[in-house]
Write a structure and sequence with these properties.
Elements (H helix, E strand, L loop, with lengths): L1 E7 L3 H17 L7 E7 L2 H8 L5 E2 L5 H6 L10 H12 L3 E5 L3 E3 L4 H8 L3 E9 L5 H10 L4 E3 L2 E3 L6 E11 L4 H16 L5 H13 L2 E3 L4 E3 L7 H11 L4 H9 L3 H12 L3 H9 L12
Parallel strand pairs: 1-2, 1-4, 2-3, 6-10
Antiparallel strand pairs: 4-9, 5-11, 6-9, 7-8
Helix pairs in contact: 1-9, 4-7, 7-8, 9-10
Length: about 290
Amino acid sequence: MNSLIYLAFGSVDIRSEALYSILSYYQQEPTPQPDTQILVYTDEAVAFQQVLGSRPDVHYPVVAPEQWQAWRGAANKVYLLKIGILEHAAAHYPGNLLFLDTDTIWRQSPATLFGAIQAGQFFMHQNEGCLISGNTLSRKVYRHLRGHEWKVGGKVFQVTSETELFNSGVIALRSDKAYLLREVMSLAEQLYVTYNKHMMEQLAFSLRFAAEGTITDVPAYLWHYWNLKEARPAITRVFSTYGSHGSAELLRRLHQLNLPTLHEQELAYRNLPSWQRTLRKLTGRRWQLPAFEV
C-alpha cells in the first residue's frame, strides 16, 4: 500500500494548507488509486471531512493527547513529530510511506515515486547543498558542529565538509526501514543538545539516511512554499469563502494566489547579497507579499 502522510495538528491555517495540498494531489490523480491512501494526522478530522467528504481512501489515525507530547522527544521540538508519525504509519499502515509538509502543492502524480520507494530508495524534498557552502544558517551550523561526534546505532556521525543538508518537507521510505527512525530521533536529540537550531531535525534525517543509501530529492514533483508563512491566512480565507463551492472552484481560487511564483520571488530576494537587500529596504523596494484578493 502507498501512503501519503500529512501532519495537520493545531491551527486552522495548517489544516487549510493540508487541504490545498490534498486537493492538488487529486488534481493529478482524478481517478482513485486502489493502492494509494491518504493519512491525515490531525486533531480536527471533521474540518477535513467537511471539504473532502467521506472518502474511503482518506484515514484519520486516532492519536492520544499524551502521544503528541511524547513524539516531541527529549528536545521537546514540534519538528520531531514527523518521526513519531512515520513510526506510527509504518506500524499501522505498512508499505511505501511518503510524508509531506502541509505547505506543498503537487505538480505531478507521485506514482513513480512510490515505485522507487518500493525499490528501497530514500527521498527528501530538496538537496540544499553542503553545509559548508550553503546559506548563512547552514554555514553557521557547520562552524558550530564540526569537530563533534554523535554515536547512534553503533555508528559514529560527524559533520564534515561533504555533509549535505536535505529539506525535510518530504520524507519517504519503505516501512520495513522504519527502524532507522529511532536512530534519527536519537541523533536529532543529540544534535539539539549540541546546537539548538530548528534545522537539527532535517540534518538528522540527512545524516542517517545518507549513511544507509542515496537520498534523492523531488522538487519536480511538488512545490514547497516553506518561506511564505504569511500567506496562510489567505489560503484559509479561500476555504472559508468558497468551501461549499466544490473542489474545482476551490482549486481555481487557490491557484490564483500564485504561491509557486511568490515562493521563487521571495527566495531570490532572500538570496541576494546582504548589501543589495539593505539597499532595497532603504529605497522602499523590500520584497513583500502582495495584497491577496480572495
